[in-house]
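Need tokens for this chain, all 173 residues.
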Amino acid sequence: MTFSIALIGAVLTSGMALALDLSAKFDSIDGGTLAVSEWVGQPVLVVNTVSQCAFTKQYRGLQDLYDTYRDRGLVVLAVPSDDFKQELGSNTEVKDFCELQYGIDIPMTGITSVKGQYAHPLFVSLRQDAGYVPRWNFSKVLIGPDGAVVAQLSSNTKPMSNSVTTQIEDLLN
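Here are the structure tokens for all 173 residues:
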């Protein structure tokens, strides 16, 4: 603990940016916890998702992206959030909806805040380190194998679009 405080102080006084909080634990929708740090050395596409929005059909594209690149190391992390007031009422409802409607087997957190004062620590660090704040459901951030932000993508960017797959291909080669 003392070492961590000293390290943070040293980073702050040196003017260096703090690293993303990749080790911050999320509750997994399947039980237990997960963290982006579990996939160190792999690209991770983090997406704040929701079940009741015009963009919800992007779940299919996220699963297709994961199916296409998972064997090469890509992780797609869905982070259901009710910050925009369009999520179902419980983790069980979200999990059932995603499995029944879209056959989702991508890693998925429980319902999590992604913006504002209750934002999950990963999203706080994304805001502080990269200026990334989800503006709407299905905003995406691509984190490279080195743990740095590679791209910030809007809700309008479809998961299987050339702009997404090209960046992922570059990270996997």
